[in-house]
Amino acid sequence: MSSIKAKDTNGIAVEIGFDGCIISSIEVADAAEHLALPGFVDIHNHGAIGVDVNSASVEDLLRTGEFLATKGVTAWLPTLVPDSDDNYQRVTDSINNAMRLQVDKPIAQIVGVHYEGVFANEAMCGALRPQYFRNGHWAMDGGQLPKLDHGVHMTTLAPEIDGGIEVIEQLVADGWIVSIGHTKADTPTLERAFAAGARHLTHFFNAMTPIHHRNIGVAGWGISREGVTFDIIADGIHVAPEMVRHACRSRGTDRVSIISDSVAPTGLGDGDYELWDEKLAVINGRTQNERGSIAGSVCTMADEIRLMHDLGFSVGEIAAMASTNPARLLGLDDRGSLEIGKRADYVLVDDEMKIIATYIGGRPV
Question: What pTM, to 2 d.p., does this model score?
Answer without folding.
Answer: 0.92
